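Lecture notes, continued. The same structure-token format from the folding unit now serves as the input rather than the output. Read the line below as a description of shape only.
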């Protein structure tokens, strides 16, 4: 691996290193990149004809565009620089942490071609392929936000990243932190939260994004670059606070409070006067409240209340929970279920309408200037009335 050039990228504050490497060495490196990095994108379905042509081109000595990789390392200072042999040894040593920003499908094609030749035992073609040259760019000293930013800008117009992948890259550092007993589950784990303090990582992030944007609607692909800019601004304006952690703990404490105050409530279809259109929104308190629609509604509502000066800051919200009045639990929760059942029956987009309802429920519940302040049942009725006014 030979270093050809080193340019500093001022936008993402990282060094861009251009290397020349043999296809054989890159094939070996790709095993670490794709097999050991849990945040690397997976293969997507693409035109087999295009990649069959690329295989033939590679066998004829075709030079393909550089493959772009990144190595995130908070301890690395790109401005100090390294000698070529030190940089090369460092990248090879840490190659299992490399992420492919651009050239994933080319990498899979290279791997497929090597496997084909290894199976065919065509030693001459295999030897020739191993010695061919490939250019790779490595962003060194880049942070996770920079990785996502470059990934988005490099892949414009190509196979888009899934929202899951964007979110996991953007917020992945939080998976390494002690979260006071809270467990965040990656979508790749393919597991439903089983305990009170377990949440899907993607859903919590969507709730936090709703807090940042003051918007209960879920994230879409076009909002991710704006989200990056919001995070960069927050990182400079909130040096003594971590708003993601504050949001997570505020939401978790709300869930724990509602579950504890519900006194092991379970749904009884004989106690509800309304005839439901299907299964109730939840059959116990945990299932009533640990929902992604509620996470986003809570986030956007608290953000709005802070903007309106009804709440000073996010950390103040959990101090209110002990005074939440559920009233008669069975009446309150049946009212909650009946209102959500109506929304399910009439909504064109159920999830979005539910998010709207929860947004207004929490605005009513925590607005000290309102008549429903800390009264859960009254907040349900007021939120439902607002929902009807906005949708009819």
């Amino acid at each position: 691996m030979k270093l050809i050039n080193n340019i500093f990228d001022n936008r993402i504050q990282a060094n861009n290193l251009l290397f020349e490497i043999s296809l054989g060495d890159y094939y070996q490196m790709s095993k670490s990149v794709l097999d050991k990095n849990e945040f690397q994108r997976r293969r997507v379905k693409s035109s087999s004809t295009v990649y069959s042509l690329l295989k033939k081109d590679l066998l004829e000595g075709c030079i393909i565009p550089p493959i772009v990789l990144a190595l995130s390392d908070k301890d690395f200072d790109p401005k100090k620089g390294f000698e070529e042999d030190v940089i090369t040894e460092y990248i090879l040593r840490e190659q299992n942490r490399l992420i492919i920003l651009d050239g994933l499908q080319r990498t899979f094609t290279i791997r497929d071609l090597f496997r084909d030749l290894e199976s065919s035992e065509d030693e001459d073609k295999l030897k020739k392929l191993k010695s061919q040259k490939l250019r790779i760019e490595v962003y060194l000293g880049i942070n996770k936000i920079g990785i996502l930013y470059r990934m988005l800008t490099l892949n414009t117009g190509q196979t888009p990243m899934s929202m899951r992948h964007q979110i996991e890259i953007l917020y992945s550092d939080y998976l390494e932190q002690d979260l006071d007993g809270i467990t965040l589950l990656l979508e790749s784990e393919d597991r439903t939260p089983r305990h009170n303090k377990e949440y899907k990582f993607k859903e919590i992030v969507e709730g936090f994004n709703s807090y940042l944007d003051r918007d209960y609607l879920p994230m879409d692909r076009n909002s991710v670059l704006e989200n990056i800019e919001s995070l960069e601004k927050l990182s400079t304006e909130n040096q003594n606070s971590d708003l993601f952690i504050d949001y997570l703990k505020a939401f978790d404490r709300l869930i724990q409070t509602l579950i504890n105050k519900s006194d092991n409530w379970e749904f009884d279809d004989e106690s509800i006067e309304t005839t439901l259109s299907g299964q109730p929104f939840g059959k116990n308190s945990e299932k009533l409240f640990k929902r992604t629609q509620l996470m986003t509604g809570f986030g956007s509502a608290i953000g709005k209340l802070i903007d309106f000066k009804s709440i000073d800051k996010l950390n103040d919200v959990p101090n209110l929970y002990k005074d939440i009045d559920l009233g008669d639990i069975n009446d309150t929760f049946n009212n909650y279920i009946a209102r959500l059942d109506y929304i399910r029956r009439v909504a064109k987009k159920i999830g979005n309408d539910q998010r709207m309802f929860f947004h207004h429920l929490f605005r009513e519940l925590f607005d000290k200037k309102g008549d429903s302040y800390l009264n859960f049942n009254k907040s349900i009725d007021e939120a439902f009335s607002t929902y009807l006014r906005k949708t009819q």
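Point for the exam: DSSP finds 15 helices and seven strands in the chain.
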